[in-house]
Amino acid sequence: MINRRHFFKQASASVLSSAAIMAHPAAITSHAANTSGYKALVCVFLLGGLDGHDVLLPYDSASYDAFANIRQALIATQGANRQRANLKPLVPRTDTVLASRQIALPPEMPNVKSLFDRGDAAIISNVGPLIEPVTRTTFQSSGAKLPPRLFSHNDQQATWQASAPEGAQFGWGGLFADAVLAAGANASRQEFTTITSGEFGPLLSGRLSSPYTFSTDGPAELFLLADLKQTDLDPERRDLLEAIRQTLGSPTLDGAHILERDMVRAIDGGLRTNDLFNSARSRAASFNASFTGPLGAQLRAVAETISLRSELFASRQIFFVGVGGLDTHSAQATTLPALLAQIDAGIGAFHAAMGELGLENDVTLFTASDFGRSLVVNGNGTDHGWGGHQFAVGGAVNGGNIYGSLPPPAVGHQADTGNGRIIPSVSVEEYAAKLGSWFGLSEGELNASLPNLGNFSRSGLDFI
Amino acid sequence: MTSLVGSSASEWYLAELAKPQSSTSFYLDGFLQGGFSNTDDRTILRSIPTFTFWKNAISGDDQLRQRMSFALSQIFVVSDFANNAISEIPQAITNHQEVLSAHAFGNYRDLLEAITYEPAMGWYLTFMGNQKADPVTGRVPDENYARELLQLFTTGLVQLNSDGSPVLSSDGVPIELYTNRDITGLAKIFTGLDLEGIDRTLYPTIDEIINQGTGLDDNFLRPMAPHESLHAEDRKEFLNCSVPAGTTIEQSIDLALDCIMAHPNVGPFVGRQLIQRFTTSDPSPEYVARVSAVFDAGRYRLPNGANVGTGRKGDLAATLAAIVFDPEAREDTNLTNTRFGKIREPILRFTHWARAFQVAAENPEYVSRLWETQELSALGQHPFRAPSVFNFYRPGYLAPGTESGAVGMTVPELQIVNAASTTGYLNFIADWAYNWRVEAASELEERAFLVEAGLVVDDAILAGAFVAAYTEELALANDPTALVDHLDQLLVYGSMSEATKTAIIDTIAMVPFDDPNDRDAQNERVSLAIWLVMASPDYLVQR
Lengths: 464, 543
Hints:
Oligomer: heterodimer
Low-confidence stretches of chain B: none
Mean pLDDT of chain B: 93
Largest interface: A-B, 94 and 90 residues
Mean pLDDT of chain A: 91
Number of strands of chain A: 14
Shape of chain A: globular
């Protein structure tokens, strides 16, 4: 069997000794995470950088006209779905952000609009990576510490997920999972604490936990060994198949190459975790909610997995799915509405599915993205920015409100670094901390997961 | 690189350089001339660059050029992922394949220039049709290509030492090379290029060219054309470079690329990534420094005394020689160096199988399994189909939760290793190891699929395409030890550990035989042995 001299995990299955848990800093924090009941976080990462300017649209006449003037080259090709009359105005329940201004969602987001109106969706505006608060003055004078590699996709994705640029090892989702595991969540089976549908970055990489990757195109199962499930299998054949399975997972690792050890652990751990997952999978719920498109397929798989929480022995879970194509340097007028429609449909279906499970108050979905984009147009698209707008959805969300701050549709204002690439007023770590607090983490655990959290107040950010 | 052993490695290298380049237009010509397919089915049209890749990568005589071209395709990423717009115009990626192949042993500066004028890259990084700023509407130039040209194709984000390590500030942090001001400055260079012959009053966006059918598809085979009136005429500053006001588009691009190419980061930045594609995932700083010195000098002296390269910075034939002839790659002591080596890419595992068993690979279009291998349930990787310009994996990837990551080894390929993809690969490679598609039912199903897709099916080709005869292996089927020894030599260059060998021998010995001439059992034992070898860590990690 696999040599466990090293405290390294399987690629997907972590079998932890109590010693490993006790050694983890979170375990010795006096206020350990609350792990009662069931709770799940679902991160929908919008890969490429969502243009928040084209999602949270100015609606009062003066703001809309200013926006339409700056964006005239784009709006000319966007047609009816960016005409003011066709937008979906939002009326916050308690406004602290807009004052005399009004805002709207684009017409391709009816589900989010309806969730907002019902109080199940909140908007966190102008959120982005920060180390400490930044103003235009400190930005220009280098008077504030800035996140490294601003405006670079891979680095800002990593910074969103792990507070450091590419190469970051531990994401806050993984560290949140470590904290709840150390506090005793998912004690009888830890493999399904964090789950992803692909490779979207380090969010779920913990010190103890590592994500299980599921495939949305059917169960991952070795068909050469499928006959092992037959009860009347010829004994000679059964012996052969069991020997094959043994051979795949058991080469002697002593003295082997470091990458060989990593590969054996990945294959053997993957096979074992897949077997556990697949044996539960047939009992997954089916939903009336209609999931469509690539994001829908991922969110359906998440919903199905949540329906198996008892079979998988999970009381705390974090899921990570992604949708690509948001890097709208070009053809934004046609590509973005289609993507927003897909995102909107996915969010709507997922929330409905959680309602069908009776879990709408126990599951919170939130969005994240590399960065926002420039307000100024480059012809038929927009370029990399910094702060952007995100959604949090679920029964636990204090919805129907906008949190953070919303810079005016203009350039040269106090939050503008140039061409309407806006300086975030809410740091990603504040956003994450509110989600982590709901998930059950203590202040100590939040601070251990989010290195710069102490530089921010989290005031006025009670979206959950 | 064990294939270098035997005849003179230097001679082998020179012979590879001299080999004629495999055609990149075979499938495109066939498709356009109509003999290849009897419909304009989009699935076949979208797969033309895929067919070209598999055919040349497996059956092309110019193997080293093919490997270099594939390596370069992972730096200069253009992708038809998710049936995006250029998947509808096979000329685009076909031309990209031609450019990469033609420059594979050429000069990096020339390659950068060819890439800059490529319609495929112009579309993918959205600078095709990019225009100078318009103060009236507030429009500014698109920054996409300027940013990725620096970040991904030439310098990277931070100042590098010649050994690839970051230069550190007095605070111990890497020093960023540029700010967004440099990007907006460089973006002005790439204004005024557009698809040859396009009338933007009729087709304002490329999507309209694709959707409406303009007859311009063949122009994706030719460099983009300059439109001086759309080019920013003002002075352009970036990266301590300056291009004076009033230059033409071609002058602007020449000056900009010359200045970027002169940056000391380019050698270590490009050299390290090419090392990762050929020999080792986490090269030592000394190895990177030796390769980047050759990149800069543009010349390399082979062991037999012959010189490779023109002496101009960026010579790729010299750079590749420095990579494969480096002592770190060549000396046997590195077989025991636990940090030297790389995980074989899934695509290269499959091409390796096909080459090792000499299958008929001239007609990949007959094998639907090869049309789409990007799913996690297949290879999790498909040529010219990375999810984004950031490729399948990143050169600096440290895999969380792994032993290599914990000791700080960069291992790009681990970024696509997970529970779904490892099982996907094992299933995928079993299809080939077991020749399962030659079963009558599979072949009929495949035939129906191909006919439905519009392929003109030749049954003789269908029956033989990508089927392994395993003649040598079947002759050893009754001797498990001899069979595994043979596969060790063929696939793992004799480096398989005794433990792995014993486990595989013992397992395949359990395949039940009715009698010594049981043909089915012999077939099963051979297939199982190949599959277990290709699933073994000894195989998956190339040293």
